[in-house]
Every structure is written in C-alpha cells, then in structure tokens.
Design goal:
Elements (H helix, E strand, L loop, with lengths): L1 E3 L7 E5 L6 E8 L2 E9 L8 H27 L1
Antiparallel strand pairs: 1-2, 2-3, 3-4
C-alpha cells in the first residue's frame, strides 16, 4: 500500500493498495478509521515510476479536497 498525505493533513489521504489495482482511493479518517469517500481510476494504468504515481495521487487528493470544500460550502448556504 502507498499513501499520499501532506504532513499538515491528518483527516484526508489518498491510498493505492498495490498489486494490479488501478484505483486510487480518497479517504477520510472518521471515528479513528479510514473511510473511502471516492475512487478514481489511474489515468494510464499502473504507473511505471513512483514519480508518476505520486503526481496522480496529488491530483486525486487536490480534487478530493476541492469536492469536500464545495460540499461544506453547500451545506452552509
């Protein structure tokens, strides 16, 4: 398993569970457990380098955080 989670972040992460999986999971820590909020397929299949995987994980994280913020704003207004 590989995880992308910025140092300042404790509630959200992106996880790739390895093997032949082509899915990246945007997860949130709820009551001490990681819960899947969304799943995104790797754009070009399994990356050939760690750098490519890292970049895709960052993109999924940024998108997930944006969606979480939009949902929060939607519940306020």
């Amino acid at each position: 398993m590989m995880i992308y989670q910025p140092k300042c972040e404790s509630l959200y992460r992106v996880a790739w569970y390895g093997g032949e999986s082509t899915m990246l999971r945007f997860e949130k820590k709820i009551a001490g457990e990681w819960k899947e909020l969304s799943v995104q397929t790797l754009m070009y299949g399994i990356p050939t380098s760690i750098k490519e995987l890292y970049q895709e994980m960052q993109e999924v994280y940024n998108y997930g955080i944006t969606m979480e913020q939009d949902n929060l704003i939607g519940t306020i207004f």
